[in-house]
Amino acid sequence: MRTSSRHIIRLASLMLLTASPARAEPPKDIFNSPMWETLSERYFGQDKVVFDDRVKVGVPPIVENQAQVPITADARMLDGVKKLIVFADLNPIQLALELEPIQAKAFVAFRMKIEQATPVRAAALTEDGVWHVGGMFLDAAGGGCTAPPKANGGVSWYDTLGETQGRLWQEKDGSVRARFRISHPMDTGLGQDNTPAYYIEKVEAKGIAGVTLARLSMYEPVSQNPTITLVVDLGRDGKGVDIDSRDNNGKIYRASLLAPWRQSQSDQREGALNAP
Amino acid sequence: MKPLLTRRQSLLLGGSALSLFCCCPPGRAEPHRYELTPRKLTDGVWVTRGSDEAINERNGGAIANVAILDSSEGAILIDTGPSRRFGEALMTLAKELTGKPVARVYLTHFHPDHMFGNQAFDPAKLAATKGTIDGMKEYGNAFSDSMYRAAGDWMRGTELVLPQAIVEGAPEDIGNRRLRPLLMRGHTPSDLALFDEKTGILFAGDLVFLDRAPTTPHADIERWRMSLANLSAIPSTMIVPGHGPVESSVRGVEQTSRWLETISHMIGDAFERGLDISEAITLPLPDWTKSIALARYEYERSVMHLYPQFEAARWPRIDERG
Hints:
The structure holds 2 protein chains of 2 kinds. Helix content of chain A is 11%, strand content 38%. Chain A is built from 3 helices and 16 strands. In chain A, strands 1-8-7-4-5-12-11-14-15 form a 9-stranded mixed sheet. Chain A has a 7-stranded mixed sheet with strand order 2-3-6-13-10-9-16, with no helix packed on it. In chain A, a hairpin with a 5-residue loop joins strand 9 and strand 10 (176-182). The radius of gyration of chain A is 19 Å and the shape is globular. Chain B has a domain at 19-27 and 34-248: Metallo-beta-lactamase, Chain A (4-Layer Sandwich). Chain B starts with a helix and ends in an 8-residue tail after the last helix. In chain B, helix 6 (221-232) packs antiparallel against helix 7 (251-272) and helix 7 (251-272) crosses helix 9 (295-314). The chains are: A mainly beta, B alpha/beta.
């Protein structure tokens, strides 16, 4: 931990020294990815960028299904996160999603399509205009028996389009964990059968009187039937969380996760991910 | 240059010299070759043990046990291994051991480490349940892709071959040997176990794992445990698991059942607590699983298999149409 923070300080000071007025050079990539410079320019533009261990990316040690790779992006150790984005360098479409945690934690879990072994990164933009980047290398080639997702047991995706399921839990610190799954094909438009891109592009979690708690922008790499975990601050009188979504055809989906939620039992047990 | 020469020489010498090299990575100049070492269980029954590993480029996917039985009509095989080359080596071995051609080949289920050796055999002699054949049709191409990716060149030339004979419930008489098919499910939607009446040996397929963690990509855990309860009631002299050592006890049946109960409870509990997959895979396993090969690996895979099922089945509908 000490060496890594020293490393960050060194990187940061190095950047201060070398920063040019035209554009701050991005720090040298820990994964040595061929896409890093292009992507950092695309997503961070002129902004200051630091690698930061406090931005954690969770990837599975093995890829069981390349169409449904569970990813967690967690920047809860940082204060004042305005935006949290997740991207995979070597995917044909790199950006998977953007979270604006308005009254929410800088945390999101979801599933993502992965084309090949790639760095998966989360970048958190803090109020001071700095992007804090964390990442993990995901090895997608070693996997076990990869079975393609079974198409809903013969039921057409259209019949279940927009069906939403989910639950709420209360976290130890009083915040609320929302987990939900929206039935949607999430087509990338990259398939060989000319199926056009069709995906949910906006998800909003709303509290009392429609106040927005968190805003998600999703892109093609998010897996079929998006399954999302968010942690929101509902406030004392919160009765539940509304989930409003819209796909790129303009179709609107509405769902409500209502209290009473389950008391999270995570406090007493190992392995819980509570707010730090 | 020198070690390669030694290796070539040893290949020519054959026999005991070979076994010295079977653990080494094969030389690049040589095509991959499976070295099958049969273990005799009793007169006329042999098993070649798979390695208790995940499928990789060193083991060429030879991770499952394969059985060879002698009969007056010819050799009987149970499963064909992961690739064409394995199937060919197996056919040669079966002829050597029994002195007869292969009369019958049973496939216990549709998973790739058990059936991609089919190509070496006459499809009319390959026998499986209808459910297994359906599974091969449905998943065969995807399995082929992932096997090539995981095992590499060992898979060269391997293609899916479907069995033409269908196993139903009736006893299977091949020459002087009678095998009782037990049509079960749980590991996959159709699992075939075979009980040899003459020796009392139970060939359990992947319904039973021993000292190697069970795999669950197509599992129905509850059904699987019911099948195991039924298997444990069979008065067998030995049990040949799909993966792991052969023993004259029901340890494999009990261990498989305990494993399934343990992980389904852990994963179900993590799900009920609201953890996401990437959180659930970090949970610690109980101490008793430490002696089981690939426990961590298969637990993580099982989380990824079971979670989507739980999410679809256990969460209430919350949309305005629901």
